[in-house]
Amino acid sequence: MKRFLSIIAVLLALLTSCQKSDFEYDATPQGNLDALWQLIDQRYCFLSYKEEQLGFKWSELHAKYSEKLNPSMSRIQLFEVLCQMLSELKDGHVNISTSLDLGRNWSWKEDYPENLNTELRQQYLGTDYHIGSGLKYTILPDNIAYVVYESFSHAIGEGNLSDMLAYLRLCNGMILDIRGNGGGELTNAEKLSRRFTNEKVLVGYMCHKTGKGHDDFSEPSAEYVEPSKDIRWQKPVVLLVNRSCYSAANIFVRNMKEMPLVTVMGDQTGGGSGLPFSSELPIGWSVRFSASPSFDARMQHIEFGIQPDIPCSLDEAQAVQGKDSMIEAARQLIAKGK
Amino acid sequence: MRNSFYFLLLLFMFSAAAQAEQALEPVPERLPSARAFLLGFGKTHQLDTYLSPMEYSGTQISFLAQSERMTHLAQQHISFQSTFHGAFTSSDNPAETASYLGARLAYDAAWHYHYSPLKNLDLKGGALIGTDLGFLYNDRNGNNPAQAHFSLDLSLSAGAAYTFNLWKLPVRASYQADLPMLGIMFSPEFGESYYEISQQGVGHDILCAHPGNALSFRQMLMVDFCLKRITLRAGYLCDIRQQNARSLKYHDISHSFMFGIVRYFGELRIKR
Question: Strands, DSSP E only, in chain A?
């Protein structure tokens, strides 16, 4: 009986044992910086690439930013130091979310001309344009379809796409304007891409981290766009892009560049090819970071954006006259039969 | 190190139970067939590094439906036990700025060999096959808001029950511990996204589970007592589910106070 009771006592003692997290919980400024540095060191998917492209050493940044800390600093001061450290990555998918502010680096769009005037764009759409979920579309006077998709966060259904393409079927071509589209759902990007190909097309590759090492990645898996079984567009398409095309919009541009009837026109896209994950710091702030990189069909990085087939920018002089020079260039291209 | 120590102690306990199985005599005179339904309330500690490196703490509401009856196997020395265990959890991170909501449903079927070295003492040892399905949802994560958990295990199981009188009322105290030894479990790769899982399927995310990468454990200490015409059961349930695979760590540790009713059916006579 004594043995029985002692066994029970030992088993009850098992309560205190458990799998521990990888880091010691420490809510001091240094503890938070350590946690953030470790998170990026182990889970951020572009560290080797960014070190090579931007010329920093992540291992050196820990000491550099630790020097800026002191135990009595305020939360806003800590937030600023942590954001400064993350800004070295120049990644729009890397953020710290707090009740104070959203830590961000939007240099991918803020350092460049916007090449978009939404008032001008609205003039082309007019007032009697159609709205199919997130898609706005109309037919321009020269019988060219003009479609605006402002965010891949706006869901689009197969029915929306079929109805839109049926309505626009007699047009000579399509201008698909995604300028200012900052991304959203990858599934929407894929769904729309499928309407512009008659064959299965290799559009890129994707992989993910398999461990904590900077170069621990899975074998890249090929990404294909399969043709939709519903109505597909068979005429020239000009895809208008600018620096604000980011994340899922960047992936959409990557896909569309592989389609035979599509010409990408405008400025380089903003990039953002890492699928973001969320985590957090001991202080309770949420952290977002790129976790799974995507590549183009030639296995090249598209984190810093995609070059257009035809570079083009918004002419301010024409804008004053009520003309969007990028839309006009697209119309001319379609009119010339590409 | 501490885990290894406890693991060795557990093995010792199971080996003692196995030795007991080898002795066919004596067996208890009577073992009741019972069905119990209990509700529980307790604390939970949850870590899932796919979602967050922080351990979340909170509350758990659970139920346990268990039935046990003697079979005709091994001259009626073997019992069959069926257990449903469901739990709903709500927990917060240390800074209380984010929450997990979770649910689990587990079922296991166990076969125990019974041995009674003393008149009122029943020892049992055996194995169980169990499956566990659940999820953990983080209310503010973006592309990785939730994690699914699945396991199918073969476990060692051992226990004891002691019947005695307390203030002239019959009381039955029982203890049971279950230790998964081999099975399969779901675990995504370190940075694998839902998008990739949806594209490539989950086949490559099913792994072999063993105490080296999934040291889990469940123990129950229950007391049955009569109150007028009904039999009540009260006790403690500790459920420790852990994974350490693909550089991801997970644990869900709960301690619950359980309370419910038991119905005993026609007592089975055990042959000597």
Answer: 95-97, 102-103, 130-132, 135-139, 145-149, 174-177, 201-206, 221-225, 237-241, 262-266, 274-280, 286-296, 310-311
